[in-house]
Design brief:
The protein contains 14 helices and 16 strands. It has helices at residues 60-67, 116-120, 123-126, 136-141, 143-146, 150-172, 211-219, 260-277, 283-292, 309-318, 331-345, 396-405, 414-421, 434-441; strands at residues 18-32, 35-42, 45-52, 74-82, 96-106, 176-177, 183-184, 196-199, 202-206, 224-232, 245-254, 305-308, 349-353, 376-381, 384-391, 427-433. Bound molecules: adenosine-5'-triphosphate and aspartyl-adenosine-5'-monophosphate.
């Protein structure tokens, strides 16, 4: 027997062929002393395997052994593909495997903390039935089992595609991948959300973002850079969209004259990404997620809508909202604006630009025509923020002044400010939260679902 076959590849074209698969015994159903069914799962795809006594091939003892397998044990199955006349319920593949040999590679405990069946059910299936609902803490406490569900598999396959497209797109656009330190001397974003630690006797922080060093890479003449790496925020609120550690997809680039060049990159990158996620390769993963957590496909335009912050404020005011024209939008206002934009422009993905300066970090460039505003933007999916970006202050004295005004201790960022004194080009960039992109593209309600081992204010294990 030559090669392994993947469960997802089993189809009627393989009828009568001998195949070899490895997966988990999801369910084991003895029918009699002569017969048993085992549903084998591999990466969220399942196939029904039929074991029947056959002289010289399958003994009664073997049927007995298989009937005693525990769920989630790792098994190796050699058998012949067959096509039944009736539809197969409880398996993704519409063929069966007539077992000739079955080995148990590793046996799981007879009782697991949660079952895949319970963890895979949608709210709709649970509603009205006496079925077990597995709550989020139980899922996260037993994350390795929860990850095995079709939706769990789908989410992280989609996440992998998002970071792959991010890297691939930026490489083809001439960006250089960099890796900046995560142990740094001071806060990079300002604010209190910083993990402080002792660095061999010196005070230090876990990086709140690669902000300072990605800009310093521009000072080091790498004209366009990007990074995929961990970002640490000592969030003290417990929300559906904040983690204490998340994956930042960061970009920084020289610009010729206007920060719209940075928004052009956002536009092309995300339209490419959404197109790719909607292609054939990700279809089964999106379907697996939607089966458990139904969602509508994301509505986006070929050319991303760019809406001025002031226009957004006006739309909210016209809809009867009370909003501060120079303040930040709160979560509720962002959602509301998302709905208004969808109604008016038919898109759930858009850029809001020219934010009030007062609500942006110290390194943000003020607008030259009105310094109450800044050359900055946020990007939204379904009314929630996934990206912040801006043109940066490249003039060292202004940068120092802005840092002081924002309450930053400039002695902790002196090497950063010095870098600007050695000559700094016009530049800008943006940061994307990977877990938020996946959460919002799939219309999921909680960021803990899209972080493999989430870290939030209450959780540091598993
Ligand atoms: P960024 O850090 O880039 O701004 P973010 O989405 O985390 O990204 P925040 O600044 O934390 O944004 O919050 C944006 C808005 O969301 C705030 O102005 C605030 O009104 C609201 N918000 C933040 N945390 C909470 C919370 N725990 N509960 C309710 N609203 C919140
Ligand atoms: P910002 O603080 O907005 O900007 O972060 C960028 C993006 O990261 C995501 N994000 C989070 N995701 C999960 N949990 C959190 N606690 C969390 N906080 C933020 C969001 C957000 O849009 N240096 C700038 C970026 C830049 O200007 O280049 C920055 O860090 O998706």
């Amino acid at each position: 027997l030559s090669a392994w076959t993947k469960v997802r590849e089993l189809n009627a074209e393989l009828k009568d062929k001998e195949i070899l698969i490895r997966g988990r015994a999801q369910t084991v159903r003895p029918v009699s002393k002569n017969m048993a069914f085992v549903v084998v799962r591999e990466s969220g795809f399942t196939v029904q395997c039929v074991v029947t006594v056959q002289p010289e091939i399958v003994s009664r003892q073997m049927v007995k052994f298989i009937s005693g397998l525990t769920s989630e044990s790792i098994v190796e199955v050699q058998g012949i593909v067959s096509v039944p006349n009736v539809a197969i319920k409880g398996a993704t593949q519409q063929v069966e495997v007539q077992v000739r040999k079955l080995y148990c590679v590793n046996r799981a405990l007879p009782t697991l903390p949660i079952t895949i069946e319970d963890a895979s059910r949608s709210e709709k299936e649970i509603a009205g039935e006496q079925l077990v609902r597995v709550n989020q803490d139980t899922r996260l406490n037993n994350r390795v089992i929860d990850l095995r569900t079709p939706a769990g598999q789908g989410i992280f396959q989609i996440q992998s595609e998002v970071s792959y497209v991010f890297r691939e797109f930026l490489h083809t656009e001439g960006f250089v991948e960099i890796h900046t330190p995560k142990l740094i001397a001071g806060s990079s974003e300002g604010g209190a959300a910083v993990f402080r630690l002792d660095y061999k006797g010196q005070p230090a922080c876990l990086a709140q973002s690669p902000q300072l060093h990605k800009q310093m890479a521009i000072a080091g003449d790498f004209g366009r850079v990007f990074e995929v790496g961990p970002v640490f925020r000592a969030e003290d609120s417990y929300t559906h969209r904040h983690l204490c550690e998340f994956t930042g997809l960061d970009v920084e680039m020289e610009i010729k004259s206007h920060y719209s060049e940075v928004m052009d990159v956002v536009d092309k990158l995300f339209v490419t990404m959404f197109d790719r996620l909607n292609e054939q390769k990700c279809k089964p993963y999106l379907e697996a997620v939607a089966k458990q957590h139904p969602f509508e496909p994301l509505k986006y335009l070929r050319k991303t809508l760019r809406l001025k912050f002031e226009e957004g404020i006006q739309m909210l005011k016209d809809a009867g909202e009370v909003v501060d024209p120079y303040g930040d939008l709160n979560t509720e206002a962002e959602r509301k604006l998302g709905n208004l934009v969808l109604k008016k422009y038919g898109t759930e993905f858009y850029i809001l630009y020219r934010y009030p300066l007062a609500v942006r970090p110290f390194y943000t460039m003020p607008c030259h025509d009105d310094t109450k505003y800044s050359n900055s933007f946020d990007v939204f999916i379904r009314g929630e923020e996934i990206i912040s970006g801006a043109q940066r202050v490249h003039v060292p004295d202004l940068l120092e002044e802005r840092a002081k005004a924002c309450g930053i201790d400039v002695s902790t960022i002196s090497t950063y400010i010095d870098a600007f004194r050695y000559g700094m080009p016009l530049h800008g960039g943006f940061g994307v939260g990977l877990e938020r992109v996946v959460m919002l593209f799939c219309g999921l309600k909680n960021i803990r679902m899209t972080s493999m081992f989430p870290r939030d204010p209450r959780r540091i294990a598993p």
